[in-house]
Design goal:
alpha/beta; seven-stranded mixed β-sheet; six-stranded mixed β-sheet; globular
Length: 492
């Protein structure tokens, strides 16, 4: 097979980057071409994504490619889930896509419940009740009387929207659609009866296609402006977590994973959906995998909380990098206090250190002081939440033990959190690759082009190309057991 040069656009909640992957001889090499910030803005009372800026940055990446001695064979795009843009009948964007952290969905779960009971909604969609789900966003538009909802001719999720800007071709990729709470997990198609009950239009929803299909090629004017050819754009695992899980270097299906970053997505890969009451009560969700599987996972707030703490500390005084915060956390006392990282009070941006302190005060705990103590509370609480989530999988859902935990994504580089996690869950923690999301993106392009056979061949390439680290528990776990008892008494 010839060498493939693949360009992956990976958009996160705070930054984006373009990575060039070269696949040759069963190994993948990657290098960063362009990195940029992703800065949502408040505009006309809405918290929105700056899509024109993101489109501009994509073209900057293509311009850089044009000055390199390389012919790109394909392009893939992955982003966060749930958010979308609406197009009118003339193919024009009806306003900037609203950010999932916008307050318009406040109270929407309760309003939807008045029409469709929780148990029925979960049985039909298999998705956890996250306040930001696309279903609640669309219902908020209906409740507000937003006229663009009825003007919409097409709904495009973020990776599909960005692919449309590059190619002019509309499409809906399965893994990103599966984050919406609009999809039937058994049929992999829209639950139009459900949407009609909520008076949400269905004509704007396109045909759902599995990843690995060619979306189109770069529009001639973009190819000309950027000095590149009309490169094929491939629908990869459009949801960043789907791409990250694809890149877990596992040899069989008996593993759990965390895609670690702003969010910690903890779960397992299974053949089909699980929509039983126990899954619903644990707030697990059924999302689509790149190979047509189900990613049964739990959304955990992740490193968002420490990121917001750092943002506030940087604003107040001299900046300290994340490595510096880890050093301070190591010196802080263990288990001074703990938080439920998924409490709604930690969802919005703002003065996160003050919110953590107030939360500890309200729950009758010692109040952490200073950067080190607050950081340690966050890291220990994340590890304890991981233990809780894994126990729910083992005891309530899968009814079988999980042997190990694979952590991929940028958060896998946090050595202290990795050590805490191994101690908390009492089993091996394998970390890497840290660039899992974009690696999954690039190698799904290779599958579409015939350079790799399937998901297991993809994972062999990952294993051959990128190192991993293993963390084992170093103590008898008594201190963590005692902390976990406290944790479950506080938060259930």
């Amino acid at each position: 097979m010839k060498t493939l040069n693949l360009l992956g656009f990976d958009f996160g909640a705070s930054s984006g980057r373009a990575m060039l992957g070269t696949l040759s001889g069963g190994r993948l090499e990657i290098r960063e071409i362009h990195r940029f910030s992703n800065d949502p803005v408040t505009l006309c009372g809405r918290f929105v994504w700056d899509v024109p800026r993101l489109f501009y940055e994509m073209k900057q990446a293509l311009l850089k490619i044009s000055h390199m001695d390389v012919k790109v064979d394909a392009i893939g795009i992955d982003t966060w889930g749930v958010d979308y843009g609406l197009l009118d009948k003339n193919g024009r964007l009806l306003g900037l896509p609203v950010h999932y952290r916008d307050e318009r969905t406040d109270g929407m779960r309760e309003k939807v419940r008045e029409v469709i009971p929780d148990a029925e909604l979960f049985a039909r969609t298999g998705l956890a009740y996250n306040s930001f789900n696309t279903l609640y966003q669309l219902y908020a538009m209906r409740q507000e009387g937003d006229p663009t909802l009825d003007m919409a001719h097409d709904l495009l999720f973020m990776p599909d929207l960005l692919a449309w800007l590059l190619t002019g071709e509309k499409g809906t990729e399965y893994t990103i659609a599966s984050t919406s709470q609009l999809l039937n997990p058994y049929t992999r198609d829209w639950d139009k009866e459900l949407l009609e009950k909520l008076d949400i239009p269905t004509a704007m929803l396109g045909e759902v296609k599995l990843p690995g299909t060619v979306r189109g090629t770069l529009l001639p004017d973009i190819a000309r402006e950027c000095g590149v050819g009309q490169i094929p754009v491939i629908a990869v695992g459009g949801h960043d977590t789907a791409s990250a899980v694809a890149a877990v270097p596992a040899r069989d299906s008996d593993f759990a994973y965390i895609s670690s970053g702003t969010w910690s997505l903890l779960g397992v890969e299974i053949p089909g959906p699980k929509c039983e009451e126990g899954v619903m009560n644990a707030n697990y969700t059924n999302e689509g995998g790149v190979n047509g599987s189900i990613r049964l996972l739990k959304n955990i707030m992740g490193l968002w909380i420490i990121q917001e703490c750092k943002r506030e500390w940087d604003r107040r005084s001299d900046a300290v990098d994340f490595a510096g915060l880890v050093e301070l956390a190591v010196k802080a006392p263990a288990f001074k206090a703990m938080i439920d990282v998924d409490d709604q009070c930690f969802m919005a941006p703002g003065d996160m250190p003050a919110r953590i302190q107030e939360y500890c005060r309200k729950t009758g705990q010692d109040v952490p002081q200073g950067r080190g103590e607050i950081s340690r509370v966050v890291y220990e609480s994340l590890a304890l939440k991981y233990r809780w989530a894994i126990e729910r999988l083992e005891q309530d859902i899968l009814k079988k033990p999980i042997k190990s935990l694979n952590i991929v994504g940028g958060g896998s580089k946090n050595i202290l959190l990795n050590k805490f996690t191994a101690e908390a869950i009492k089993r091996p923690v394998i970390t890497g690759p840290s660039e899992g999301t974009v690696i999954g993106n690039l190698l799904m392009q290779a599958i579409a082009l015939g350079g790799i056979e399937d998901i297991w061949a993809l994972r062999k390439v990952v294993e051959a190309s990128f190192p991993t680290d293993t963390y084992l528990p170093e103590t008898d776990g008594a201190a963590w057991d005692a902390a976990y008892v406290r944790y479950t008494k506080l938060f259930g």
